[in-house]
Amino acid sequence: MERIPILKMNEFLLVSIQVDMHDRLAMTLQDDLTDRIVRDRARGVLIDISSLEIVDSFIGRMIGNIAAMSRVLDAETVVVGMRPAVAITLVELGLALPGVRTSLNVDKGMELLRSSLARGGNGHRDAGR
Amino acid sequence: MPDDETLPVRSSNDIVVVRQVVRMRAVEIGFNLVEQTKIVTAASELARNTIDHGGGGSARLQSLRNGGRAGLRLTFEDKGPGIPDIELALKDGYTTGGGLGLGLSGARRLSNEFEIQSRPGEGTRVTITRWK
Ligand SMILES: Nc1ncnc2c1ncn2[C@@H]1O[C@H](COP(=O)(O)OP(=O)(O)OP(=O)(O)O)[C@@H](O)[C@H]1O
Ligand SMILES: [Mg+2]
């Protein structure tokens, strides 16, 4: 079965979404990621969407679900590489991706995760919400 | 590419195909990248609704020329259960299927023209148009 690879980068996991995902692939990714966060004791997940030409409410919901599950497992999610046209469209679509942070690229996303972990890790960012 | 074609919308993979063909047409019409992204995203939402809520149907893609104006019209049609309260279905966050409830209202915002016809028990037809 077709799968989206999950790479381990130090204490983080990196997923590059390259394909125009159909629904089953998206669901499989969600399950695979949860397993890997636990198995690798990952503290952060980077989701690289620089190849995605669109993000619709289905993909948006998947990203939101991954972020929510990661948080429960004490890992933080950063979405990296969102194209400007996608960002503009998401706003008009009304999709806010609550609890999901974004970075320009993988390097910047790693920096964000590192500094967030150094500050005491997860949980803090939700304080006061 | 024909100016008027109809594609099946029955499986998750059909959604991918609809997105690709809508993109090709949008490029052909001369939409810029943001305009392309908006109409493809709207198409993706409506195609998914056709499958998830309408039990499958079709997508008609029409390239339009109105005087000097070019546009793209997409019509999604199914013979599913229909929408009993259209106004309610168009509210942000309203869903009967555990979604985000953004597809229909979002597709409307992403288009220049939006039309919906639905009768309980007979099906649903949603037409969106985006002009260049
Ligand atoms: N083709 C259709 N046939 C029947 N009902 C529909 C159809 N399209 C939309 N609906 C109804 O309108 C509601 C709102 O649709 P909308 O696309 O906004 O949200 P959703 O599909 O539930 O979630 P998502 O945010 O994932 O799209 C649906 O939950 C459904 O009840
Ligand atoms: Mg929908």
Task: Please tell me about this protein's structure.
The complex is a heterodimer of chains A (129) and B (132). Chain A has 129 residues and is of the alpha/beta class. Chain A has helices at 23-39, 57-72, 84-93, 106-118; strands at residues 6-9, 12-16, 44-48, 76-80, 101-103. Chain A has a single domain, classed as Transcription Regulator spoIIAA (2-Layer Sandwich). By secondary structure, chain B is an alpha+beta fold. Chain B contains four helices and five strands. Chain B has a five-stranded antiparallel beta sheet, with helices on one face. In chain B, helix 1 (12-29) packs antiparallel against helix 2 and helix 2 runs antiparallel to helix 4. Chain B is globular, with a radius of gyration of 14 Å. Chains A and B meet through helix 2 and helix 3 of A and helix 1, helix 2 and helix 4 of B.
Outline the secondary-structure elements:
The complex is a heterodimer of chains A (129) and B (132).
Chain A: E1 6-9, E2 12-16, H1 23-39, E3 44-48, H2 57-72, E4 76-80, H3 84-93, E5 101-103, H4 106-118
Parallel strand pairs in A: 2-3, 3-4, 4-5
Antiparallel strand pairs in A: 1-2
Helix pairs in contact in A: 1-2
Chain B: E1 4-9, H1 12-29, H2 33-52, E2 57-66, E3 69-78, H3 86-89, H4 103-109, E4 113-119, E5 123-131
Antiparallel strand pairs in B: 1-2, 2-3, 3-5, 4-5
Instruction: Determine the mean pLDDT of chain B.
Output: 96
Largest sheet of chain A: 5 strands, mixed
Helix content percent band of chain B: 25-40%
Of all chain pairs, the largest interface belongs to: A-B, 21 and 26 residues
Number of domains of chain B: 1
N-to-C CA distance of chain A: 40 Å
